[in-house]
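Hi R.,

Here's the chain you asked about this morning:
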Amino acid sequence: MAPKRPKGAGAFPKAVEQSAPHRPDPAQLYAALDLGTNSCRMLIAQPKGNQFHVVDSFSKSVQLGAGLESTGRLSRASMTCTVNAIRICRQKLNRHKVKRMRLVATEACRRASNADQFINQVRRETGLKLDIIEPEEEARLAVISCAPLVSTKTEQLLVVDIGGGSTELVWIDLTNVPKLDRPKSIMRLHSGFCQDPGPFAAAKVVDWISVPLGVATLRDQFEDVEDDAGRFALMSWFFEENLAEFAPYATEQNREGFQIIGTSGTVTTVAASHLGLRRYDRTKVDGLRMTSDQIDAVIREYLTLGPAGRRADPRIGRDRQALIMSGSAILQALMRIWPTDRLSVADRGLREGLLYAQMSADGVLEDGPY
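And here is the predicted structure, written out as C-alpha cells:
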C-alpha cells in the first residue's frame, strides 16, 4: 500500500503531564482519548498556566487492529474488548463530570471497512462519539507535542511517530529560524504545515508522510516468517522501501545540526532498556538523548534474547514484547538512513495535543488562544 498525504486539521503546542494537587472544579476539566491500533488511552486534565495538570488517566492494550491486515475488518472480539475499555473511560468521565472532551480514532479505523459500524457500536453502548482523524492531523499533533525537546542547535529536524497501524514522519528545516526561537517555531505549526508565520521566522516543513505500517501492521505482514533474525531484517528493509516517496529519503545528513525526535512505545521501551530500568520511569525517559550506536546495541540485545527472552525481560513488558521487534525494525531503518547522535525520546503525543487544542480554543491557557 502506497504512503499517503491526505489533508487534515490543526494541532497545538506542548503538553507536560503533572499531577493535579487537589480535586479540581469539573468546569475546568478537559479530556482526550486516543484510540489506536493497539491501545486505548485517555487523559483528563485541567489547564495550569500554559501547561496542564493531569487529574486522571487510563491506558489499556485492546489490539483493535488484530487481523485487520488480512481481513480488512475489525474483528468482533477486538471491538468488544475495545468497547469494554471505552466503558471504563466513560466511567472516569462521569466521575469527574467532564463536559469538554475530544475522542479520536486513528489508523485501524481509517482502514477498516466496518469502521462506521464500530463507531456506531461505541456510541450506542457507551454514549461516546469517536472522531476518525486524518494522518496529517495526527502528524501535526505529534510534532507540536514534541516542540519542547527541539534543541536550539538543530537545523534539520525529523519527528517520527511510530503507531500501531501507521508511522508518521515530518521533516522540518530550521536553518532560517534564530536558534533561541526554534522550539517556539515548531509550536506555531499548529495552524498547518503550510502557513503564514506573520512577523515570526518560520519552521519550513520540507515534507511529511504517513506510511501505513506500524508495529502491528508490519508484524502481521511477516508473521509467517519463523526465523526471528530473518523476520526482523525483512521488516526493516520493507519499511525502508516505503520511504522512497519521502523527499529527504535520498538526502544524506551531517550528524551535526540534525536531530530525530521519536514518539512511540517502541522508542520509550528502547530507552528504558538502554537505561536498564526494571520499572518504567517517565521522568528518566522523556527527553533522553540516544546515539545510533546505543540504539543499535539495544536492538542487538533484543535479537540475542530471542522471543522467549524478550517475553521474560521486565524492561520490555508483556504488553510490548509482541510488538517490540517490528517497532525496532522501523527504528533501525531510520537510523540506517539518517544516523544521528541526537535522537530525543518523547513520552508525549496525540493526547497532549488534543488537550491543548481544546484549551487553546477556549482561551484558558496563560498564553491565550493559538
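One quick note: Confidence is low (pLDDT under 50) at residues 5-18.

Cheers,
M.
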